[in-house]
Amino acid sequence: MALHRRMDISNGVLVQAACYKHDHSALLAALRMTEGRYRGVALIGADTDDSTLQQLHDGGVRGIRFNFMGHLPSERNLDQLRLQAQRIKNFGWHVLLHGQIDQLLPVLGAWKNLDVPMIIDHMARVDATKPINESAFQDLETYLKAKNRWIKLSGVDRVMQGAAGPWAAALPIATRLLQVSSGRAIWGTDWPHPNIQGEMPDDMKLLDFVEEVCGDAATKATVLSGNPQHLYF
User: Fold this and answer.
1) Could you give the CA distance from residue 152 to residue 213 in angstroms, rounded to a whole number?
2) Does 50 map to a domain?
3) What is the pTM assigned to this prediction?
């Protein structure tokens, strides 16, 4: 909260840490402390019942996260995950997809007709330190053109493999993702930056980066305020 005050951030979203698995007591306690100014993203499983979903919703949760990164524990069966996505539709929630681009493209292909908002986390973890795989990136752009597909322009330090800012090499990638999604983009600090390889990023520099990607004041307002309000509040 002190960090957000320094950054002039008044509202935000807390994503359930993988280490807590399906125990959301810490997340819900944190959300209660913010008195409605923050929302949450949960981790659920096939055994999460409807009453638990309602409790999470009442506590401020507005989405679920599916982790496809190898080091993070998560269900990988797409049929099972699809059932979870369909269950949260009635609550007006969305699905946050976290993985590398080659892990996410099969998911997006299998779920291209799934009528649930989906947000691609951390710019699909594209490696901006290497020549871009244009074919895979164009496939990602195609999926992002759908009206209920979103991109999170976060984790630039991760796509730059831990390099210190200002991350100019990632700017063209982020700009393309913002443009192809027709403005359906949000941002996050990724604080407290777990499993960082290399130098711990400066959150103010991360904010500077996304503001540079947005360019004009209207786009900044949409990405940093308007779109999150639409998705979470």
Assistant:
1) 12
2) no
3) 0.95
